[in-house]
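To whoever picks this up:

The nightly regression suite flagged ETFB lysine methyltransferase as changed. Nothing in the input moved, so I suspect the structure step. Input below, exactly as stored in the fixture:
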Amino acid sequence: MPYNMSLLMILRITLLANAANAFHLSTSYGVQGFQLASLSKSHFLPSPHLSPSALQSTETNVETKSEGDASAIRSITFSGLQEDQEPQLLCNFLMELGACSTAITDSDKGTRDEQAIFHEFDTGTMTRTAVTTHVWNNCNVSAHFPASTDLQWIMEIVQETFEDLPKYSVEQVENKDWVLHVQQSWNPIVLPPFCLRFPWHSDDLVEQKLKESNVNVEDAVHIQLQGGIAFGTGEHPTTQLCLNWISNIIEKDSSQDDRVQLVMDYGAGSGVLGMAACKLDDTISAVGVDIDVDAVHIGNQNAEMNNVNMKNYLSDLVQTKDDESRSLLLKAYSSKEGDVAETLPDDMNGPIYDACVANILAGPLVSLAPILAGLLKAGGKLGLSGIMESQSDMILEAYKPFFDDVIVEDTEGIWVLVTGTKKE
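Regenerated output under the current build:
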């Protein structure tokens, strides 16, 4: 792909410098993905002119809004970029030109050519990852700009730098109450016997969803979650695998003397897994651990809102092996205040738990094997997810030295649940 090399060289240098200094990866020890912190902007290019103009794209003519319409947004979409055309670099370039946000999507989504890409970043490669993350072979790149931005100027700069870009289109983004829009898109989630709901859900809507899932309203176990920043809304298959496992072990042990009484939710996020255990049996207590101070805060709020005996803590620093998680935890340590984000106390950091559930990612799970083993009593039960089927062998290998009967117990699509029993 031909480029204006001087501009792209500056962009690469800027991105690499920003990646080294300001780019961190937040796993929040949650499987639903990574949160990527924004790259610090070094505006080496002049700011876009904020003068009204009309833009003639290859597909449509969109009138520029006036500068006074501060809430108006327009999007530019480049369709059909190949991976070797570096769509990641185009995204970063558009951000430097003042885009509010950018996105790369699969052009073939919904067709038989659609590619499923699941990827965990290697540790120690954040600088490279910031610029060269793997993407689909056939991509769309979209960017949102304030409608007062001179898109004609933007496109002149882009076309001068990327000489063989495919066609693009410009659209006016409908002005709406986006908070309400997102809330309406989140329906109650029914995972028998659990019903995960948000504060804005009406009882009538919840009852409707329960009936659609053939669950008696009286039998449902309700867990209320905030629509906040912590991971764990129950939508991901691995969360569902873990909820099923929790339900099974508590139901199975309910008549036994050594039944589950204390549960560790490692990588708790919203705390949904620990709260689920407490909701099934009000004699059960749970402890949540996370590396994100916001997740700890939200998790404790959720526990209070659901009236369950669960407390969330920051992970011990020595328990964090990979560089990205360690960086995030150090940031959390520097910002914690009072008991909002306490570190796991010594008397809670030992082999006292009857069950431990960890819905994280395969890479961190491997390094956490001895740590999770050290939290469980002899005979304690372990449930792990966030693991793709192709990663199951390395998880089994990592946990067999500490656990008996380590197996893939359940699957959901490409995701698996690994279970085991702490050795005597």
